[in-house]
Design goal:
204 residues; 27% strand; globular
Length: 204
């Protein structure tokens, strides 16, 4: 496998680890899909997390503007799903440091951990395991900018867009794999299931 794995190699790895599943799934936001991805199942294996983190770091490093500021680059990720990716990419890039945002309850907004907040003027790379709804990355971007930081890009292992995924342009978006999943808003009119098949409710 190359330092930057191909789309096919990433999908094969995700399927072999059980991280990528095929079927009929109901997401908490009301969408139905034929695919469900849980990145933690791939990152539990050191060798796989290393392959994915190094590969993503190489994608980021290819940008000359980001490469020029790596020594002063800070990484911001949402807890807990984004942290393994953030630390893996930070190690591979030799970035300056990692910050994270968290929340106590699902209905609360993300916030930086006490005494662990980026300072005005810091250059920030936002990182998560998956870009699906974009809700956490949108909040992270706002948090970083409110703190006076400059967001220079976003990076995720898998880009799985759905009809509700925001466009972060003109910021560059880096990913190793793009899933062309099928999404539906109504279970009864969705072409995914077989007759009588009920959706499996999943967590984000």
């Amino acid at each position: 496998m190359q330092l930057v794995p191909t789309q096919e190699e990433v999908i094969k790895l995700l399927r072999e680890t059980g991280a990528l599943r095929e079927g009929f799934f109901e997401y908490p936001n009301g969408l139905y899909s034929n695919q469900y991805l849980q990145m933690a199942l791939a990152f539990r294996y050191y060798q796989h997390s290393k392959i994915l983190s190094v590969g993503l770091s190489r994608k980021v490093r290819a940008n000359p503007e980001i490469r020029a500021v790596i020594s002063e680059l800070s990484i911001v990720a949402p807890a807990t799903g984004g942290l393994p990716v953030a630390y893996g990419v930070s190690e591979a890039l030799r970035a300056k440091q990692v910050y994270w945002a968290e929340r106590e309850n699902e209905d609360e907004p993300l916030r930086f951990r006490q005494f662990l907040e980026p300072q005005p003027g810091e250059k920030i790379l936002l990182i998560d395991d998956i870009l699906r709804t974009g809700a956490k990355l949108t909040q992270l971007k706002a948090l970083a900018e409110d703190a006076g930081c400059e967001v220079v890009g976003l990076a995720v292992i898998v880009y799985q867009p759905n009809p509700k995924t925001p466009d972060f342009s003109p910021l560059p978006l880096y990913y190793l794999c793009k899933l062309e999943s099928l999404f539906c808003t109504e279970a009864d009119s969705c072409p995914i299931p077989t007759p009588g098949q009920k959706p499996v409710k999943v967590w984000i």
